[in-house]
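Re-run with default settings, no changes from the original entry. Doing this only to confirm the output is reproducible before filing.
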Amino acid sequence: MKQDMNDDDEVIIIGGGKLSYDGMSKEKHSRQGENSFSKKLGRLVLPLIVLFLCIIAFLLYLLYSRSSIGDNPYATSRTTEEVVAALLSSNSNEDSTYSLNEGKPSVSMVTDSLNGVVFKLYTIRNLTMHIEMEHYPDESDSTIYFISRAMDYRKYDREMIGEYVVDGTLYGDGRHRLAYLASLPDGLPQIGIGREDEVVEFVQKNRGCMIRQFALVSAGQICTSQFELKGKVTRAAYARKADGPTALYFVETLTKETLYDFSEALVDYGFTDAIYITDGVWLNRFYRDVDKVVRETTAEENKKDARQYLVFKKISSCK
């Protein structure tokens, strides 16, 4: 018996149309192509994201480095403007705090000790600073009163580490080392702490000389973040006292010391600021006294393999 089909039993195919084998094949390949492209895109996107993040991290590092270089983590005894004023006034011979009115050029030396640190203390008065490159100066030059080494240099290429100025010309780069020692022609040398452009530009403009080295003491505070040199060796530094602005001091230890112990002794001895010098003790160090008499002559071993020297000479206006 024939059975009628209800409307509910009807099968409806949605989408209609004929689906051939070729159509199915094309659809399959299309899906495979899309999957393949997605996989390739995925393989490209991940490295691009990593590269992008690396670039962002590098830019942030540069930004942080520049901002940290511009900042001085220590209090300073003098502002940049005050150091520039001291350089200018000591060069002009005007009647000021830094004028050259204390008498003849001279270097005097005493041996002293503090906190177990034994050292020679040289007091340098009425002398201007010059940088001698490549060779040891002629000690027979009667205008020369004191000589020391200056900056570190890389042994593999013999390039100076950090920036320095010789007769108004800027050499090198890098201001990680926080302290500087600067002088204008016929002016008194000045120690400063900081990385600002003003002092460098001022020294360049006035054809002066300047070195940059590690800060040991700033405003009576030990500069521990500058202590990259480890171990115990003989140490040397130039230093200043706030109550004796026209005198510059050179200190070299006769005992082997860490930078911290050396700096602590400098602070306890009353020094306000101090800049490290690549030197250590010299068996004999040339210096000339107030009567123009040479008291010591530098041993030959200390005259070899040096790239530059700090030379303290008679100021032309001094008798």
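Residues 1-17, 61-70 have pLDDT under 50 and may be disordered. The two ends are 144 Å apart (CA to CA).
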